[in-house]
Structures are given as C-alpha cells and as structure tokens.
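Internal tracking record. Fields below are filled automatically when a chain is submitted to the structure queue. Please do not edit lines marked as system-generated. If the sequence contains nonstandard residues, flag them in the REMARKS field before resubmitting.
Queue: standard
Priority: normal
Entity type: single polypeptide chain
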Amino acid sequence: MKKNRGFADQSIGRTYRRLRMLAGGALIGMPLLIACSGFFFVHELEPSLSDYYFAVRDGGLPRTLFLMFLAFLGGVLYSYRGLDDTDNLIHNVAGIFAFGVALFPMACDVAEHPDCVHGLFPVLHLPMAGLLYLSSVASVFYSGGSSLEAALNRLADPESWFGRLRRIKILSLVMMTAGIITFLIHRKLDEYIPGISWIFWIEYLGFAGFGIYWVRLMWFIRDANNAGRRKFATRAEAEEIKTFGAPSALPEAVEKAAPVEAWSDIP
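SYSTEM-GENERATED OUTPUT FOLLOWS
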C-alpha cells in the first residue's frame, strides 16, 4: 500500500473544498440550531447537547436535528480522504465515533426527562462522545501530516506558510483544550456559577473549534494552491524564454532537457 495517496485533480479538489465547508458549517451552526429548536418546547438550554435526544416526548424536532447532525458529520468525516493514510485513518475513526454517539444515546434520566425511553447500550454513549472529541483533536494536531508539509516546502518562503498553519492549529486546539479542561472542573464551576449548562458549552467549544479549523484550513489550502500555481507557472515561462530562438542543432548534439517542474494542487 502506498504511504501517501497523492494530490487530486481539479474536480476532486472542488469536492474536498465542498466537504470542508460543509463540515465547518455544520460543526459551528448545527449545535446552535439544535439548541434553538429546543427553546420552542422546553424554553431553556438543556444541560448538554445529548439531552436534546430526550428533550421532547417522542423526540420531535430537537432529536431529529441532533441525529441529522451526527449522521451528516459521521458521513463527511468517514467519506473524507486524508492527505496520507494516517490523516485518512484519523477521519475514518472520527466518523465512526460520530455514528456511535447517534446510535447509542445517553442514559435515560426520568427525573430530568419524564417521558424518555432507554435507547441502545447507553453505557457506550460517553465513551463514543469522548473518543469523537479526542479524534477531532488528533485531526487538528496532525493537519495533513508529511504530505501537506512536503507541499508547503515547495512554496516560496515555506516558513511563513508553516507559521500560518501553526496559528490555524493553535486557535482550534486552545478552544478544544479549554473544553476538555472545563469538563474536568465543571462540577466545581457549578458550585460557584450555578444554572449554566456547562456540558453544552464544553461540547460547543469542541465542535466550534473543529469547525473553525476546517474553514480556515480550506482557505489556507486555497491560498497555497494559488501561490504554487503562480510560482511554477513563472518557472515554466522562464524556461520557455531561455530556449526561445535558440539556434537549431543536430539531434544527437542536443542534451535532453529536464522536464519543467509543475505544481500539483493540494486537494
């Protein structure tokens, strides 16, 4: 098996960009849409995003949106092909965990949701949610791995490109790490600031951080591709000028020219 999958052609590149934008939009917007849908029925923010599975008798709109979000996210992450095998594996695993969160709803608490009915293996819900969170962190941390690094090294001033990529990663990792830290201390925070749905905002920090990463990565790759095309187009033009008008020579005396290096788009 090849270690790296290589860079895709233009049509596949457009598909990659569409997937990144859809993933980013869903991660940032869908949790808020789910919460807004709940206000029509329960008039307050649920303790966690997972609570919207039971917020309304028989599920209703909040459960529908919650499951749609997780199914869509799982499908996008599983379908997305990373820039190398490790990148691909991280996203495949994250997609499976997103499906797991939807398939195994949280434990039914009749004290909070009197009409709730137990779902399938609720004991698996928290592990699936935690592993989805951690695999999302791994995705941001890895950020395309050696394949993206190799492409950036071909650009003019690669250090500035690596610096920009680090800034993209740092913002999202800070948001996602803040969510993990808040989760560890949220019970203590509830003693000092009661009445806040800490778990919901922890989850939202994670989803929004991951979504912002996808959107910014898409813009970053678009700019890198534009810079790569300009650089290598300029180099090809220089080679043409160098050979234009050169005196003809016998075929056996002409040394075969090295092929002009071209830029292959990062998908």
